[in-house]
Amino acid sequence: MTPSSMSTRRQIMAMAMLVLALIGGLVRWFAPQPSLARDVGSLLMVLWLPIVGNIIGWLMQRVRAPKHQLQGFAAGTVFEPHARIELTLLAADTPRLSRPIRAGFFDGALVVGSEGFTTRLAVPSDAEPVPEVPCTLAVQFLRPELALAQLTQGTKFALLAGRTVLGTGFVLPLER
Predict the structure, then answer these.
(1) DSSP structure class, residue 74
(2) What is the pTM of this model?
(3) For position 1, what pLDDT does the model report?
(4) Shortest CA distance to 118 belongs to which of 142, 140, 95, 102?
(5) 95-143 residue pLDDT tens
(6) Are 130 and 99 in contact (CB under 8 A)?
(7) With contact defined as beta carbons under 8 Å apart, do 167 and 88 qualify?
(8) 5 or 14, which is more confident?
């Protein structure tokens, strides 16, 4: 679980436990020394212990998290085609997702088996891909030395944007 992915229900439960612990502290503060109210206040105060454990766990996770930069294409870099692909977009379930790739540069990943390669597609303004219609696009790889060893001519792949499969296709020979 990432630090920012704590669910709303979990946050509400944590706040409720802390509020009950504060109420327990107040009850314990104002109750006479040997009384049932003081004992109930003590029990309510114990509710903060799991919260402290969660906070310590969250802090340890933040300390251990790697401080690396996101990998991707630097803004403003020149497009250098490494391969050509024939891509066929899948039909979308909803109309607003029917054209996921627009003209310009599109960052995604070409996946072959269990390996994925970060790519940038050059999409011409007059030839935006249409679902279920094959189109030919130029591709630039973030790490061409690794990608070109796996993506030889005729290799079939899937195109991903995040975790969504946008289409499938195969590698074509690069025209020089």
Answers:
(1) P
(2) 0.57
(3) 46
(4) 142
(5) 666 667 888 888 899 999 889 999 999 888 888 888 888 999 999 998 8
(6) yes
(7) yes
(8) 14
Contacts of 175 (CB under 8 A, 6+ apart): 84
User: What gap in Å lies between CA 144 and CA 162, rounded to an integer?
Assistant: 20
Residue 33 DSSP class: S
Q: Which of 55, 74, 163 is nearest to 111 (CA)?
A: 163
Contact 45, 28 (CB under 8 A): yes
Q: Residue 3 pLDDT more than 50?
A: no
DSSP-derived secondary structure for 107-162: EEEEEETTEEEEEEEEE-TT----TTS-EEEEEEESSHHHHHHH--TT-EEEEEET
**Residue corresponding to tokens 């977009």:** 89
Q: Do the Cβ atoms of 117 and 151 come closer than 8 Å?
A: yes
**Residue 96: partners with Cβ closer than 8 Å, 6 or more residues away:** none
- Residue 165 pairs in a beta bridge with 160
> Which has the closest alpha carbon to 165: 97, 103, 104?
97
Report residue 175's pLDDT band, with 50, 70 and 90 as the boundaries: confident
Of the pLDDT bands very low, low, confident and very high (cuts 50, 70, 90), residue 81 is: confident
